[in-house]
Amino acid sequence: MTPEYVVCVDTGSTFTKAAAVAVTGTDAGRLLATTSVPTTVGPGLDVLTGLDSAVATVVSEAGGEPVDVRVCSSAGGGLRLAVVGYGRVVTAEAGTRVGLSAGAKVVHVSSGPLDRDGLVALKDARPDVVLLVGGTDGGDAEVLRHNASRLSVSGPRVPYVVAGNVDAQGDVVAAFEERGRTVVACANVLPRIGVLDPHPARAAIRDVFVRHVIGGKGLTKGPRFARLVRGATPDLVLAGVELIADSGVGDVLLVDVGGATTDVYSALTPDAEEASLRREVVETLWRGRTVEGDLGMRWSATGVADAALAEKLVAPGAEHDAIDDAARLRHDDPSWLPFTEVDRDMEALIARLALTVALRRHARPADTVDGRTPGRDLSSVRLVVASGGVFRHAAPDTLRAMLDPVLTDHAGGWKVPRGPRLTVDHRYVVAAAGLLADDHGDAAAELLRGALVPLG
Q1: What secondary structure letter does DSSP report for 149?
Q2: What secondary structure letter does DSSP report for 292?
Q3: Could you tell me which of 186, 200, 355 has the C-alpha nearest to residue 262?
């Protein structure tokens, strides 16, 4: 008898991945079927064509009918977020961290009162959503009110999420509503200095993405795709990473080298004494994500060679030029596949470099105008999860070489994990677990335990 199951789908920019997961009884968490098909986006195409094909394949293999189909999406460029804040090192920085945790690619950040040039720069960034923040609760609200007034009249025609000083929230929402703008208000991301509250804004951004952004990307005709989508893929992956951390394995690091971006997720458990000693103006997000839009295996491959040169991972001249030439080939033809041993070695090198640079940016201390941030201490990470096609399809020795910087990049300025377990998301289940986490948490946790493959 076929158990009750849910089909979880990630509609990515290149591939659409589907997994049928049992959710009830003794079978809960069992992976019944998986598949991957090209995402059908572009002129004359409908994203539902690929999605329906993927769903039909796993349903045919699993048998019966699913009790639900749930989708996360990064197709059409994913979620592009702009942050408009008060002070760069306070509310704008807080908004940026929250945006990244919500699965967004932060394409623009501004601070202070908006002027004409600031509005032009904001529009040029082509955001899908604007996160408007500013001031602690009970603090200065004039900049927040000023920015709301300018944006309601001349800002981009996109939804706005307001997560600033609650004392000004009524005035800010009214300014947008009077102009017929879409606006959602939530609790302040920075209710007081040193306290970061990401969850209400993260939920509001997810809701706006599902309700207002998906349907406007021209991916399909009709509302069905928008009804299926539960959130942006990176947001659901972070939910999966948090689920792993909460299962008792300890601190978790997930690295995902994709075609367009390289994402790093970490779920850390801060020591209470350490946390009190390292209190920042904007509190550290102990569970979060960074996205590097200039690092990838295809669309963003051209950024890898220059970033590696800047980090002194490659030498100028012939070494850099060879990597740059290979990167341009991949950028110009994203469907290109490596066939020769030389091609595969270069593919692994580009992935290793992208991963190394992304880890450094994610974890090491950084200089800001108000001092030096302490960075993320990853030394206590107990589980490392590698995701992305370049890892899933690699031979074991090649995979170890690509992941080696996680354990050995002592020159990167960040604290590397001490003896973690290395695993690979071979069947792409972390996003699926995130889709199940809210109401099928036990099944999601069991799915992760059974499907993450240790690197022997």
Answers
A1: H
A2: E
A3: 355
Using the Cα atoms of residue 348, residue 351, residue 357 and residue 362 in order, give the sign of their dihedral: negative
Separation in Å, CA 456 to CA 290, 399, 425: 28, 11, 14
Fold of 233-299+321-425: Nucleotidyltransferase; domain 5 (3.30.420)
Find the range with the poorest average confidence among 39-43, 139-143, 303-307, 364-368.
364-368
Cα-Cα-Cα-Cα dihedral sign, residues 272, 275, 281, 284:
negative
State the DSSP H helix or E strand holding residue 230, giving kind and residue range, or none if neither: strand 229-232
Pick the CATH number of 5-76 from 3.90.960.10, 3.30.420.40, 3.30.70.370, 3.90.550.10: 3.30.420.40
Q: What is the pTM of this model?
A: 0.84
Neighbours of 310 (CB within 10 A): 10
Secondary structure of 300-313 in HEC code, one letter for each residue: CCHHHHHHHHHCCC
Alpha helices in 229-280 (DSSP H): 233-244, 272-277
CATH number of 77-216: 3.40.50.2300
Phi and psi dihedrals of 321, rounded to 5? Answer: -65, -40
DSSP helix/strand/coil, 44 = coil
Look up tokens 């070494």; give the residue: 319
Does the pLDDT value for residue 423 go beyond 60? yes
| 185: CB partners within 8 A, 6+ apart | 161, 162, 163, 169, 172, 173, 204
The two structure tokens encoding residue 267: 């779920």
Three-class SS state of 7:
strand
- Residue written as token pair 């639900």: 68
Nearest in space to 432 (alpha carbons), one of 25, 3, 52, 35: 35
Mean pLDDT value across residues 107-122? 94
Q: Are 209 and 236 in contact (CB under 8 A)?
A: no
Dihedral sign computed on CA atoms, order 307, 310, 311, 314: positive
Domain borders along the chain are 5-76, 77-216, 233-299+321-425
Q: Judging by DSSP bridges, how do beta strands 381-387 and 421-424 pair with one another?
A: parallel
The yes-or-no verdict on residue 92 having pLDDT over 80 is no
DSSP symbol at 452: P
Helices 142-154 and 169-178: crossing angle in degrees, nearest 10, is 10
Identical fold for domains 5-76 and 77-216, yes or no, is no
H/E element holding 129? strand 129-132
Identity (one letter) of the amino acid at 146? H
Q: Per-residue pLDDT tens for 265-319?
A: 999 987 655 545 444 544 556 788 888 888 999 888 999 999 999 999 999 999 9
